[in-house]
């Protein structure tokens, strides 16, 4: 079972990203679940969402304490929230940033195996195609590129079905940008 913890701030679409992740997994025949964890429910407050993907029924429903993947949609959380707490020693971290992983999280780069920490300018891609700072689609496609658990097309389809028309297509375009960005790094 792949357990994913998503961190961000209220208004960035963290909960929606978790839901879209499970929808993409369903398209590929996986079992999946997503659920949020809210503190104070306000824009800008730290938000955590969880997702699980497996090839068999998922019976557990508690928060993920030992994720295999951590997605960080807002790097300002790195100094105030233990976003990498419990991360599997062979896990993956994907951070929304223009800067290299060695600059953003040098300690984590040293702790995890080579090629397990990535940065992707997800907000830049979202601003370019959507016109709003909504990094969900690019972060999920970066996850797909890193883990190969999902296909890019499944992530794109999830957003296009949830948001038919221009919004879904713009999210699909941001997903492609991030996927190709990560594949170029690998």
- CATH architecture term: 3-Layer(aba) Sandwich
Summarize the helix and strand pattern as letters.
Answer: EHEEEEHHEHHHH
**For this structure, what is the CATH class?**
Alpha Beta
* CATH H level, superfamily name: Pyruvate-ferredoxin oxidoreductase, PFOR, domain III
Q: Gap between N and C termini, in Å?
A: 23 Å
Low-confidence sequence ranges: none
**Strand percentage:** 15-25%
The largest beta-sheet arranges its strands as: 2-3-1-4-5-6
Helix coverage percent of residues? 40-55%
Describe the oligomeric state of these chains in a short phrase.
single chain
CA gyration radius, whole angstroms = 15 Å
Tell the overall outline.
globular
From the helix content, strand content and strand pairing, which structural class follows?
alpha/beta
Number of domains: 1
Biggest β-sheet description: 6 strands, mixed
Say how many strands there are.
6
CATH topology: the name is Pyruvate-ferredoxin Oxidoreductase, domain 3
Average of per-residue pLDDT values: 95
Number of helices: 7
InterPro entries: Oxidoreductase_gamma_subunit, PorC_KorC, Pyrv/ketoisovalerate_OxRed_cat, Pyrv_flavodox_OxRed_cen
Domain Pyruvate/ketoisovalerate oxidoreductase catalytic: 10-179
Pfam families: POR
Organism: Succinivibrio dextrinosolvens
TL;DR?
Residues 10-179 form the Pyruvate/ketoisovalerate oxidoreductase catalytic domain. The chain has 186 residues and is of the alpha/beta class. It is built from seven helices and six strands; from the N terminus they run βαββββααβαααα.
């Amino acid at each position: 079972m792949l357990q994913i913890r998503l961190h961000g701030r209220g208004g960035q679409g963290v909960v929606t990203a978790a839901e879209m992740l499970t929808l993409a997994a369903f398209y590929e025949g996986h079992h999946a679940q997503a659920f949020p964890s809210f503190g104070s429910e306000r824009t800008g407050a730290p938000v955590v969402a969880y997702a699980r993907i497996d090839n068999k029924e998922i019976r557990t429903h508690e928060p993920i304490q030992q994720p295999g993947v951590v997605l960080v949609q807002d790097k300002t959380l790195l100094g105030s929230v233990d976003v990498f707490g419990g991360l599997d020693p062979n896990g993956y971290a994907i951070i929304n940033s223009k800067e290299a992983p060695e600059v953003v999280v040098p300690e984590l780069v040293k702790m995890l195996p080579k090629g397990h920490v990535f940065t992707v300018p997800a907000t830049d891609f979202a601003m370019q195609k959507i016109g709003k700072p909504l990094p969900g689609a690019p972060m999920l496609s970066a996850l797909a590129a890193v883990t190969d658990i999902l296909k890019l097309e499944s992530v794109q389809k999830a957003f296009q079905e949830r948001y038919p028309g221009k919004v879904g297509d713009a999210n699909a375009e941001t997903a492609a940008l991030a996927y190709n960005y990560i594949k170029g790094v690998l």
